[in-house]
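Lecture 7 notes: from sequence to structure.
We start with the chain below.
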Amino acid sequence: MAFNSFFNIISNDLSIDLGTTNTLVYRKGMGIVADEPSVVAVKQNSRGDRKIIAVGTEAKLMLGRTPETITAIRPLKDGVIADFEICEHLLRHFIAKANTRRSLMRPRVIISIPSGITPVEKRSVVESASTAGAREVYLIKEPIAAAIGVGLPISEPSGNMIIDIGGGTTEVAVISMNGIVYTESVRVAGDKMDEAIIMYLKRKYNFLLGKSSAEKLKIDIGTALVEDDNRKMDVKGRDLVNGIPKTLTITSEEINEALSVPINTILDVARNALENTPPELAADFVDRGIVLSGGGALLNNIDKLLKKETGLPIIVADNPLSVVVLGCGRALDDPDLLKLVATPGR
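Predicted structure tokens for the same chain:
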């Protein structure tokens, strides 16, 4: 106990779900200590020099509302780093926020990554975290982290299937014996749904809607499967014909139509996983079902649609937004598990 107390003083180990939309941080022994949007507000002068003026929640409030000299940037796109320098600042902010007390050593950090990430993209994540203050960096694939966070028995010789619908990527994986038997990652998820809503309203009504408003439409009245309840919502945007502000009433049926392409892509990936899973493992899905996690799991009726298309039980995780970081945290707390499911950043 004395050794553990001393070790906690000299090092504050962290796990980070570095998401396209939100970043969550788990601190060893404390649980989730940060959950903020993955947004950085930057001011640029005439010489091109960039200065960070806000990170996280404060920066997201600036999206679409800043003068030309200030830009609200999301440094991750489709689950991977699009702006290395800004991502470093984002990670530095969260590492500093999680380390509320002075420690004698820099933290070890475990970071979740999409299963379809390239070696170059992996190096970008490791270098960003190291430059931001990590002593050691470990990488864990998002489906594995999500499965651990949900509490699936991934160490057993049986089939566990999980669909993690995040902001930038959808990860579908079949897991057995602490490893991935089959996985597919597509860069179609929450962001593409928002973009689909914007494009639908633009085509149908010549109406331009902001990204934040599209996201709110998706959350409030969006549905993957139309039922009797056709909800409505008023949104404010701009009429593209005369250029003046306008209020439009949108229905959940329209949002369902707008989301048809990204949702069908996710369904296709789920079908591919079922078709490519060995029969012995696929048989386990009949009893265990498929687990849904990530922010996309909260889309109304997405579970009912998947059940209709696959004929299998669909279980939405109790805490779908935080299962990945919780899974990373459990791996961080268990050195033996960490060795089995994570790889050291090189």
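Points to note: The first helix runs from residue 2 to 10. DSSP finds 13 helices and 19 strands in the chain.
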